[in-house]
Structure formats: structure tokens, C-alpha cells
Amino acid sequence: MSVAADFARDGFAVVPEFLSAERCAALVERAEQLAERHAPEAPRSSIFTTVEQERISDAWFMGSGGSIRCFFEAGSDALAAARAVNKIGHALHDLDPLYAEASYDPRLVDLARAAGLPRPLVMQSMIIFKNPGIGGEVTVHQDSCFLYTEPGAVVGFWIALEEATLANGCLYVAPGGHRGPLRERFRRAERGGAEFVTLDATPLPRVEELTPLPVAAGTLVLLHGHLPHWSGANRSAQRRLAYAVHCIDADARYPDDNWLRRDPLGPARELTAGPPPA
Ligand code: FE2
């Protein structure tokens, strides 16, 4: 089956060996450097969790769309900052040269087009650490909730930089679930911060109904913005580092009450443009 056919049928497609072991190792090393450099400047109260929908919506989070910022795991106060990192986001693709190169990889243009985005704009990027013993669950969600466009035109590139297993919190997906409605969106609230708003009351699938996707390091998973997916807590001794990039289509409307804004960077760049000049 082709990537486009898999994607149309399932709402996701697995591309093994997208990155070499050497590229993964270089990106892992950079991720560790970024955590060391940026964790000390982040407030330890910047907890990132999707459990109980108490997603952080403070100024640190709301202003991260155009910068490189660390967010911590809940209950990580006793750990060294770098070990406590949940994720780093959300403009690595425009601010870190090594991640920019990975984010504007020309092969992603074909994958975006196979996913139905003729003019992909690179909106958001994050390194997800899923540290051993503390890396938390990410509850069942649809990525278009956080990057809302009209019509829906969001694709995620999720790349395992380290092996993702059943034990360390691999992705779980709902094959075909992309044909369902978008259940909610996360938008800027008038009182400040952001809030979840229900768009369709159809329940998301339960975790027990999902299919696990354990993958080797270097594997890319292409995700439709409406595809319900989940990952569990990392209860193993092995970290599960992943890099995720999200694109929207340039011809879709991106309402300005989306939580993610690019300030102080300029408008999002097209994937075809290649990495920003150094
Ligand atoms: Fe997601």
C-alpha cells in the first residue's frame, strides 16, 4: 500500500526508516542540550499535562508559539530540571538550525501532499521527552483541537528519535477515526489563557479500543488532524524521545483565537521554502 492510500483509509501512515540512526542520535543529543539550556529559565510551575484537561494556559505556555520553551512533568520537583522536562516547544522548526533542517525536510512535502495538504505551512514543533518513570500520559485527543482550521487541514509528522514500545509509551491510534467529527477545540479565552470548547459531543474512543503503534527509532508516523490518538505513561527505564511537527494548509483559515501565535516571529513559512536562513 502507498502512504496516500494508507492515510486515506486509516488516518495515519507509518514510514519506517525515515531518519537514519545517525540523524536520530544527533537530534537526541541536541534535544538534551536544549533541555539543559532552556530548563533553568522555565518556571517549575510550567507543568504540561492533558490529564483532567488542566492544560497549562499561563503566559509561559500561551507565548511559546514563537519561541523555544521547556515544560515540566507533574510531580517532578525533586528531579534535575533536564530529567523533569515533559516537552520543549513550539518553534524549534524556525529557531534551532538542526531541528529546522529536520522540519523542512523536502521529503515531508510529498508526505503532506499525500495527506491532502497542497500548501503546507509549518506551524508548530515540539520535542516530547517521555522520560523514564515520570513521562506522563497524553489523553485521547485530536491534534486539530489545538490547531483549528476551516476547513480542517492539519497534518502531524511524529518521528520516533528513540524506540517507542508498549512499555515506554508508544502512540496508540484509532484506525479510520479521522472520518469522525472534531470533538472540541482549544481556543484563547476572553478572560485570558485558553479553554476547551465542545464542537461535537460524540465521545472519543476509549483507550481499550485503540491500536498500539510500537516503532523503531527513525520511524515517522503521519497523523491526520482528526485522528484520535493517545500515549500512556512511561513506566519503563527507557526514555521515549519523539519529535512532532504540525502543518496546516496555507489556503485554510486559521482563526486568530487559536492558542498558538507566532509572536515575535513572522508568519509561518511554507514547507517548500526550506529551513529559514541562518
Ligand atoms: Fe497529538
Compact summary:
This protein has 278 residues and is α+β, with helices and mostly antiparallel strands.
Notable traits:
alpha+beta; eight-stranded antiparallel β-sheet; 14 strands; 18% helix; globular; binds fe (ii) ion
Apparent shape = globular
Structural category: alpha+beta
Mean pLDDT, to the nearest integer, reads 93
Bound molecules: fe (ii) ion
Q: What does this 3D model show about the protein?
A:
Residues about 50-55 have low confidence and may be disordered. Helices cover about 20% and strands about 25% of the residues. The protein is built from 6 helices and 14 strands. The chain is α+β, with helices and mostly antiparallel strands. The N and C termini lie far apart (about 40 Å). It has helices at about 5-10, 20-40, 60, 90-95, 95-105, 105-115; strands at about 10-15, 70, 85-90, 120-130, 140, 155-160, 170-175, 185-190, 195-200, 210-215, 220-225, 230, 240-250, 270. Strands 1, 2, 3, 4, 6, 11, 13 and 14 form an 8-stranded antiparallel beta sheet that branches. Fe (ii) ion binds next to loops. The site of fe (ii) ion has 3 residues, from loops.
SSE layout and pairing:
Blueprint: H1 3-10, E1 12-15, H2 21-38, H3 59-62, E2 68-72, E3 85-90, H4 92-95, H5 97-103, H6 106-114, E4 120-128, E5 138-141, E6 154-160, E7 171-173, E8 184-188, E9 194-198, E10 211-213, E11 220-224, E12 229-231, E13 242-249, E14 269-270
Bound molecules: fe (ii) ion.
